[in-house]
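Why show two proteins at once? Because comparison is the fastest way to build intuition. When a single record is shown, students tend to memorize it. When two are placed side by side, the eye starts asking what differs. So, the first record is below.
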Amino acid sequence: MRITYAHRRSAFYPFDDHGGPGNELPPPDVRAAWLAAVRARGFEGVEVGVHPRGTADGTIRDLGKELADAGLPAEVIRGGGGFASPRAAASSRERVERAIHQAAAIGCNLVNMTVSTPPHDPLGPGASGNGERVSQGGSRYASEADFEITARHMREVGARAADLGVSIAIEMHQHSIADNSWSTLHLLDLIGLENVGCNPDLGNLYWCYEEPEETIERCIVALAPRAKYWHCKQLVRVHVPEVQHAYYIKVPLPDGDMDYRFAIAAMLHAGYAGALAVEGVREGDQLYRDGKSVAYCRDVIRELGH
């Protein structure tokens, strides 16, 4: 199991990533030093966002070589979206097809995507996607038609990916019909392709609702055999029942509510040999805090005899 970096903060002096999403690579003038610092923490690869439409294949290949030369090859291209909402389907389709092409060009041959859809009421309950009693776009409110439409698109893009030797991981995610184990498995069964599996991101299960729909232990045991990629983030839950809301604080993997010793054991027992992608913190010294997650994972994997 390789430990790779799904970073969520890119600030690295003098680059302050002001207003940025945090999950894109730092610019070239600081990237070499950033990559060396990431590698020194024990990471073995990095997650890369899909590049804009029109990016030349040569540019993608050059980035892949730069990352590989730094000892941090591209593990996955991140890009896609849901198809159940007509206003998002076309852009989602274009984005995942672009991600598939770029995954082949960069040489990782793996795409991570969600099937999330935009909130239908951006100011209404459940729009935030975290800690409320409802979650817009979630499987609780989905029809079978939503699953069938999504599966049809996924069969088509999955077949295209297979032609290029690329696999796809559908991330369990909020605002998504794949937001817990049963709904993710139902969608995968409807798709029915060997190269399309899941990313059992337990953090997205844990913080989707005020009260999680299932335990992380049951979820990871159910999804581990179908995993193609794995985001690992850790949370501390602060429940405020008076306002019917839970708030979540992101922390290093050994320091939160979810039992990643159990989760790693379940994934190894299922024969998972892909990436354990530490989904990094968004505040503070991310290299120190995310390095703590790497050290914890290595200790657990060693104690489990792998």
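Second record. Ask yourself what differs from the first in the token line.
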Amino acid sequence: MSAPLRPLPKLGPAEILRIVASMTVACLVGAAVLGAVFMATDRYRAAAVLRGERTAIRDMLALDSTATLVEVKQFLAPERRQVVYRAAPLGAEDAPGREVAFTLDGRLAGERDVAGGAPLAEGLVPLGRMFVAKRAGIPAGFVVEGESRGFKKRIRMFVALRPDFSVADMRVIEHEEDPGLGAEVATPWFRGQFTGRTADEVAKLDVTKDPMPEDWRAALRAMAKRSPGGPARHAALLPRERAKPIYAVTGATISSRAVTDGVRATVDHFRRRWALLEPHLGGLR
């Protein structure tokens, strides 16, 4: 026969207090260590993200060292019912910038020069960013941050535009779509379908489940691999494909449509924003 179970000893108030104090101290030490690790690593993570974004922007617009970049942050001021833009040279936090505000119906509400690193007004809600590339003081292209709702969560993207607002490139920079399905919208062959389309063509873009023509697929894959002749094959087929919709990733029509809708909305919004902003940001280099 097995030995009878012994009853657990009763703990007095002093013992209970000692255990609670020990657990509290252990939790506080653990939280302090985790907080210190986060603070030590988050700075490097943020710096790595910033370097990656700068590299992507220059690569998407094929910029050389002579081009400069201006970052424009967009905010909503709900109480004032205004949209506020803060522009400054990218990577130069201490450089002076420019702040411009518009009412929701597009009327100028105010503008001012701001010192480098000047704090923003309280209550502003971030709405995204755009980057203006300049060469010899003339716009050489734009990269606009956009997002849309995917199959699971939001999909964030960068859309690169030439000065005439045609698409130079598109890259998905954040998503949580399923690997092998929705995640394919981040592949070079899928995003290559947008490259070269004019703003008017993008405004009419839709998505189709029809199979992609093999010559177009081959051209896009050649572009993605940067193989010789890839750009020429892409350019030769683009006039034919401009009148056609985006070919969806097989089994991921929702993700494909989300990216297409996001690109269309991003290009449309930027064209209207830039018409308002250009006269006020022309002096930034």
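One difference worth noting in the second protein: The helical segments are 13-61, 188-191, 199-203, 214-224, 230-241, 253-281.
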